[in-house]
Every structure is written in C-alpha cells, then in structure tokens.
Design brief:
It is a single chain. This protein is of the alpha/beta class. It contains eight helices and seven strands. Helix content is 30%, strand content 20%. The protein has a seven-stranded mixed sheet with strand order 4-3-2-1-5-6-7. A hairpin with a 2-residue loop joins β6 and β7. α7 packs across α8. The longest helix has 9 residues. The protein starts with a strand and ends in a 5-residue tail after the last helix.
Length: 165
C-alpha cells in the first residue's frame, strides 16, 4: 500500500477523546452509519455533515484517548476520512483503528503548519507534502499495512486464510 493521495484538511486540537469522536448517547443507535452524523458533536456539531469522502483529519497530541470503544475509528472511517494524522495517538485507539482498516499517521510538525481547508498530499509510509514542504513519516510495519489494505483485521485474516469473498 505505497500509494499517494491528496485530501482536504480538517483540524482538531489535543486530547480528542472517544467521547468527542462519538458521544455515549449515540452508541445505542443501530449502525455505525446511523451514528456517523453525531461524530465530534460535543466539540463541533457541524463537522460530520461537512466532511467529504477522502478528507483528512489533522490533530494534536493524544488523539483517541478515553474509552476503548471500537465505534470511534469505525465512525471516522464511515465519514469517509482517508486518514488521521496526529502528533500522537492513544495506544488503544491506534490498535482499534488499525483493526478497523483506518490509516493513522504520526507526525509532530504538520498540525502547527496546516490550516483547515488546506490540501495535503500523503505518500503512504514515506512523507506528507504541504505547500511544497515535506514532512517525513515513519513507515508502519508490513503486517499492519496488510490489515489496513484489507480494510481491517477480520478481512485481512479472511484474505490470509483464502476465505475472501
């Protein structure tokens, strides 16, 4: 999955917890698709309706802290977010995101350089390009890239075991 893609940036700050990503009261809805319109509603009620397929979230440190709810990365993916770039991620959110096929990229410098609405280019496992400046990124191990490429852990295991539809 050494692909390149471009997306529009949406910015968030530090310590975006899973209760901000999807508040507890919406977890009772039937599907992730039903929950998605309420994503980030405690912080920015309009955000979910403005996000378009292929957009990119760029956040500060400790993104995804809080509870270990698996719906948080599922909802981000359901909104059409192509990847999340943050200064750092909460460990359990990072693993839940990978398990659900959501690409996460750690980069300490980008958040302070971008503005909402900017376009950035991502060369997966290589670099981010914003206004002709390059931000190197650390490569994810191949086993994690295989999971993301497959669309999540279950799909990756089905593919690995020859059970893919």
């Amino acid at each position: 999955m050494n692909e390149t893609f471009t997306g529009r940036v949406w910015t968030l700050g530090d310590d975006i917890d899973t209760d901000i990503i999807i508040p507890t009261e919406y977890l009772a809805l039937k599907t992730v698709k039903d929950m998605a319109p309420y994503a980030f509603s405690p912080l920015r009620p309009e955000l979910a309706s403005q996000i378009q397929e292929g957009d990119i979230l760029v956040a500060g440190k400790n993104f995804g802290c809080g509870s270990s709810r698996e719906q948080a990365p599922e909802i981000i993916k359901a909104l059409g977010i192509r990847c999340v770039i943050a200064k750092s991620f909460a460990r359990i959110f990072f693993r839940n995101a990978i398990n659900n096929g959501l690409l996460l990229i750690e980069n300490a410098g980008l958040r302070d350089a971008v503005s909402e609405g900017d376009q950035i280019k991502v060369r997966v496992n290589e670099k981010i390009i914003h206004q002709e400046k390059e931000y190197p990124i650390v490569s994810l191990p191949q086993n994690l890239m295989d999971i993301i490429d497959a669309g999540g852990l279950v799909k990756a295991m089905r593919r690995l075991n020859g059970l893919e539809d």
